[in-house]
Amino acid sequence: MTEFLAANAPLLRSISVLTLLGYSVHVALRAGVFSFATVGFYAVGGYLTANLLEGGLHRYLVLLAVLALTGVLAVLVTPVLTRLRYLYLAMATLALTLFVQSLAQSWPTYTGGAQGLFGIPRVLLQGEMFTLVIGVVVLVWLTQRSAAGRSIAALRHDEVLSASVGVDVRATQARAFVASAVIAGTAGFVQTSSFGVFGPTDISFGVVVSCLTVLVVGGALHWVGPLLGGVLVAALPVYLSAAGSWNLILQAVVVLVVVVYRPDGLAGFFSWVWRRARRRTPPTSAPTPTAAATEGATR
């Protein structure tokens, strides 16, 4: 097991980062907030981690600083974003991400400019990385099973009806947006403290596409969807590398097949397989009465 973890360490790091980014989008989407701001907060977490680690700060304190800063920034922009809906909200969050990307290019003393930051101390242990990912997965699962999770699901389907039964629409969406930002900042922390590099390529528009791909392939609204999507999207380039120039084409075909034939993603597919398997399981037959019991009943 140890040899497997060591041999596949880069792949496991990529899976962890993509899974956290997927959950960042997922948490906001379940509350009806279609946000592209994930990559912006991911950049904040990544660059802050790089500078604090290079300054010699302990990784646990760095993580706390990342969580605090991304949470505060999300709270500051939330009053504006919660006034918008649908396409306007998506465009506003995309503009926020583009602003952060432009700022990263224009602030070389802090971000390294177009070259990015290299030689960052790789201080995050593999077990700590897994703990962060599992912690996020468990929190999302517990939230969706709670009364608050059911309120969020109802909010996504009908805001007016949810408001009529006492759900504070804006407050609920604001909390979901802040949680999304904090998870994205955590992804930036994991990326920087495990790979030791962070730069413009890590916050390009391709990362936005990867976040959406993770969500769609895994299952946008299922609690385990981002985890399944993160595993598939990270593993495909590795295991299809032998295809050479056909690599990207095969990746696109796999994603297209999942999207067309399973719109609910891998999570929906596995749920369907589980239901089919349960239907085919024969019911346990009732025990037949023994002869002695039958004779006693007739008497």
Could you name the key traits of this structure?
299 residues, 75% helix, 15 helices, mainly alpha
Structure in words:
The protein has 299 residues and is mostly helical. The protein has a domain at 2-204. The protein has 15 helices and no strands. The relative contact order is 0.16.
Percentage of β-strand residues = under 5%
Q: Helix share of residues?
A: over 70%
| Terminus-to-terminus distance | 65 Å
Q: Whole-number radius of gyration?
A: 23 Å
The coarse overall form would be globular
Give me the count of strands. Answer: 0
Largest sheet: none
* Structure classification: mainly alpha
Low-confidence stretches: none
Average pLDDT, all residues: 83
User: What is the count of helical runs?
Assistant: 15
Order of helices and strands: HHHHHHHHHHHHHHH
Give a topology summary.
Blueprint: H1 2-7, H2 9-30, H3 38-54, H4 59-81, H5 86-106, H6 108-111, H7 126-145, H8 147-157, H9 159-164, H10 169-195, H11 205-218, H12 225-239, H13 247-261, H14 265-280, H15 291-298
